[in-house]
Amino acid sequence: MSSAPSTSPRMPLALYALTAGAFGIGTTEFVIMGLLTQVAADLQVSLAAAGLLISGYALGVFVGAPLLTIATGRLPRKAVLVGLMVVFTLGNLACALAPDYGWLMAARVVTSLAHGTFFGVGAVVATGLVPEDRKASAISVMFTGLTVATLLGVPAGAWLGLEYGWRSTFWAVTVIGVLATVIIATLVPKDSGIRTPIPLKREVAAVLQPQVLLGLLMTVLGFAGVFTVYTYIQPILLQVTGLAETAVSGVLLVFGVGMIVGNLLGGRLADRRPAGSLVVTLGVLALLLAAIGLVMRSPVAMVAFTGLLGVAAFATVAPMQLWVLQKAGAAGRTLASSLNIGAFNLGNALGAWLGGLVLVHAGGLTRVSWAAALVTLTGVGVAVIAIRLARPLRAAPPGAALCPEA
């Protein structure tokens, strides 16, 4: 056996340029959660209406990801990434200047259009920058920008909004967008060779394969389970666990650290066992969600399990993203990758909705984690079915699904 793998070569700088873009996009997606009261008061709308700014963004990602990916499919990928960061930057500038609620909602939706396609195209570019056995790790490094945004960008943005007004946060994210655009334009290499445009029919046919559709369903179910709990983590910590309000931000910081660890761990697992890592990570996530229901009233245990939830949730990201990339093949990997980002966001929205139903009709906050575990357990079942269906196809040459395009 060669000793080459043990040398563990460093990831290329271009990959960290994608991480910078992911950081900016992740910050703008989630930072609004810490600004809702200021936005509602300043624009004279209800808190519920302000909360729709989160739903509007998520739905914009879900709808925009496939449409924008198809629209830009014939363009060089680097040009697409730079263009998306320009859209992201201008969208945040429009948020900072928004004179009323309607303008802010429209600006949030415009900004969200860049999200799904950036991560979708970025994942394809990331896997093209590294050897075959490091593709999942490359995806996880790019997604580290999203997890760091949750850990650092969102709390910093919330503090900035509290001290200087919510608009200052969007001004700051606009600056991040400018910097990320420059970094990507400088470090990401131009597309090598000539890309032959793939007919839309072939792309759609590749995405409609059963294994790809099952992969998208896994993503929806996995993250629906996560957000069934995480959407309501603040009231759970306050009303059930009994923590002080000042302690909540510290617990969420623990969750953010867990996300970073889980994201990198999931990449390594998927590099070694792409199919097996799906069942393992989703299975551990389902067990952890169920366990939270047992420890919810213990402050020490709840802090620990919130961190473990971050690890388990984001350990699933690279395996699920790599699955759809591989199963869609060269013809559909960009569209499938973007659709999977939309699936993550659809899962977020469905999880928040399901958690709300449990609160109202099924016993309140103490039952939320049980519902979450059942949803994710369904995702485990889907993963098992998808892997069984894929077994007859193992005769294909290793790595054929991710071979570079001409």
Concise account of the structure shown:
With 406 residues, this protein is mainly alpha-helical.
Tally of domains: 2
Overall mean confidence score, pLDDT: 82
The H-and-E topology, N to C, reads as HHHHHHHHHHHHHHH
- Report the biggest beta sheet as strand number plus sense, adding barrel if it closes: none
CATH class of the largest domain reads Mainly Alpha
Low-pLDDT runs: 1-8, 393-406
| CATH homologous group name of the largest domain | MFS general substrate transporter like domains
**Basic shape:** globular
Distance between the termini: 31 Å
Enumerate how many helices there are, as a single number. 15
How many E strands?
A: 0
Please state the CA-atom Rg, rounded to the nearest Å: 20 Å
Helical content stands at over 70%
Strand content: under 5%
Might you state the CATH topology name of the largest domain?
Answer: Growth Hormone, Chain: A
- Give the name of the CATH architecture of the largest domain: Up-down Bundle
Helix/strand-derived category reads mainly alpha
Give a written overview of the molecule.
The chain has 406 residues and is an all-alpha fold. It has two domains: 11-195, MFS general substrate transporter like domains (Growth Hormone, Chain: A); 198-406, Up-down Bundle (Growth Hormone, Chain: A). 80% of the residues lie in helices and 0% in strands. The protein has 15 helices and no strands. The protein has helices at residues 13-30, 36-43, 47-71, 77-97, 101-128, 135-164, 166-187, 200-207, 210-230, 233-241, 245-272, 274-295, 299-315, 317-361, 368-390. Helix 3 runs antiparallel to helix 14. The longest helix has 45 residues, at 317-361. It is globular, with a radius of gyration of 20 Å. The two termini are 31 Å apart. The model is unreliable at 1-8 and 393-406 (pLDDT under 50).
